[in-house]
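If you are new to this repository, start here. Below is one unmodified record pulled from the training split, so you can see the exact layout before writing a loader.
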Amino acid sequence: MQLSTRDYRVKDARTSPLYFCTPTQDVLTVVALMRQHNVSAIAVREHDKVVGIWTESDCVRMQSQNQGYTRQPISELMSTPVHCIDSEAKLSDAALKCANLGIRHLLVVDQNEQPSGLLSLGNIVDSQGLEHYLHLKIIGTHFDRHVPCVQGDSTLTQVAQQMAKSNTHAVLVKHRGELGIITAADVLDMLLCRDKQQPCWQYASTELVTVTPKDTLLCAYHKLHQHRIRHLVVVDNQSRCELGVLTLKHINTEIESAYLTELRAVLAERDSALQASKKDLYLANKIIAASLDGIMITDHSGVILQVNPAFSRLTGYSAEEVVGKTPKLLSSGHHDEAFYHSMWQTLARDGVWQGEIHNRRKDGDTYVEWLTIIAIQEQDDENLVYAGIFTDITERKAAERKIAKLAYFDDLTGLPNRRLFKDRLSVALAHSQRQQQRLAVMFIDLDHFKGVNDSLGHSIGDELLKQVAQRLQHCVRSGDTLARLGGDEFTLLLNEVDSLDEVIRCAETVLAQFNASFSLAQKSITVTTSIGISLYPDDGGSMETLLKHADVAMYRCKDLGRNSYQLYKATMNARSLERLTMTSRIKQALEHNEFALHLQPIFRAKGGDLAGAEALIRWQDPQLGMISPSQFIPLAEELGLITHIDRWVINRSCALLAQWQQDKRWQGRLAINISAAHFCQDGLVKALREAIDRYQIDASQLELEITESSFIQSFSRAKQVLLELKLLGVKIALDDFGTGYSALSYLTKLPIDKLKIDSSFVAKVPDEYGNSEIVSAIVAMAKNLNLTLVAEGVEKPCQHQFLQQLHCDYLQGFLLGKPCSSEEFAKRYSLPQPRTPQIYEC
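And here is the target side for that same chain:
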């Protein structure tokens, strides 16, 4: 038996779902929760007790008053105290309580005093069925004529200020001749945007739903619900000009006023109107016909009695084709009998069923719909009918899948991203713990990938990453996960590992994928990789530990020469800590001027007089003493600090050369070594030009020593840099000649002035026949190409004599002169003592 209006209880009303936040959460976090759950109000709970309420209106009000409020804890801004109502209380009592307290929300509690929902004054009114009252009232002046209008480039703060100033919950937005609307709910979305200065137009709704002052409030009410919005634009009947905005609050306020003043009279009138009026049936048919949702009504046995136009539009079937038949003609075959059996069981028990269902259109296309089936039975009628209301959500589902892919998969390679990898690793760890099985985590990092990006461009680098991902997928077993964490870092999760040999075989398979070169931009490029491996439970029991140890092992692999794999060992943590410490110490050394310039003399082979010097850097650590360049230079290159060290050497060398040139006793050249890592980056020419200008030196006495590896990544770029350096007047020497790649092809194409024979060749002359012939050939070739020649590493008289006989131009080595401090060098060769130069930024 249907309840009479005076017997309605709070539990019979449609309450808003209850979602909670904590008092310590900031406003921005709470707003994110509200948007996540699509609610306009949220309860603040502390120690299982609701202590406050926060609404959309509060957000707008605070935004206009205090722009920094989003980082404040919600406890400082919430509405409190919270007033409760028992779910068994009468709705009329709830309405009177709201009126007496001047509030709009009550917290509904059950018999155990536990919160079960939020009851608003609007919920109370909705529960009374006051449609007939709305039908009798035209909109007239029941709307806001003073809605502010802002430009589309206005900011969030400006929009909120306009709302607060006008005491409205919406503003109209004009942008390039278009009109849109922004509501309090949109302000929440704008709050979640990191850039609060973004133009508001992108948040505006442009598909405006309009009404006229002559329309009824019921018409407006149904439009609001039909379009799932809370604001309508009121336009003039004839000119269609905007007059203002009608909100759900206006309608609720109108009927709430009538409800609170004439509650029982209105309810009685509603009861008699429902029984006597035939207009309701006409109105219901009109609403069904105008609905954008498909509607189908069947009898108790499932025979279709009626469908609306939206049904025909969505399915392709006309009313004549389906009336008298059953909904089985829409079946796609996607669902089994158990699905439909469960559906009918729910309908019989609850009188309603909701869910996703796959159906087939008349043309054979399948689609996904959100379907609600309601069992309807009149109070005095034994016949049962069913109403099915559905919406095509195929596009929405596709969008959800796309969003999920963006959230969990790497856009470039299509592999799982960091988030999905961690999710799967977490699940795999839980499974391994239960089953007492092992698993392995591999960190796969490409060697020298930055060089590919710098020399060939980021688009080629991206193409390389895609090809690497394709090759690595050949190494993945069913149930394993290959992911890209970012940049050139890949990870591989091996589940259910039986033995260490299995992991090693997999690592060797990964390395084998890099044996063949990659084809990029019509070039064949060889790339290697370094792999770090950690095992569960051997190397850690948590996700963070395993990832950290795999990363440490990978860096150890790079330290040992790359293009291999390393299993994690506990001692590697010490090495990792040492790397971090050394990074910090190098930066401190530059800041505290702990580096010193040493010089090694270079002599003419004929005559033996001083011809120049090579500048060398030394590190005098206050605690560790003198540190060899072989210890910190490779690490500085790897950590990206080598450019700072090179600039330090350039500045100190130029300052020293300026002193010697002023004294006019120095006639030789001063050579500076430039790291290949620095040479490949921008800024070298600029740094050298600034140093030459700063110290006003003759650049012809300055010589830059570069290695063959500087040309490997991009020959054209290297040639351009060398030409720019030559324009400054400096000389170019090719250092360590013969130890690198095919340098012979570069000698005639690059502006090189001098070759330096590597000490590894000089060390074996004249005793080793083949090596002596190589040195002889290098000397002959240099003379034919008009290149000056320097032999490094002369440590024995026999080497000295052999090189003199070959007519080598210059000699350098411990036999002739060891490296020494710049002060000792000046004293030894009667030059001015170096002054401490002004320190320039490195």
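Two things worth knowing about this chain: The first strand starts at residue 20 and ends at 21. The CA atoms of residues 329 and 360 lie 8 Å apart.
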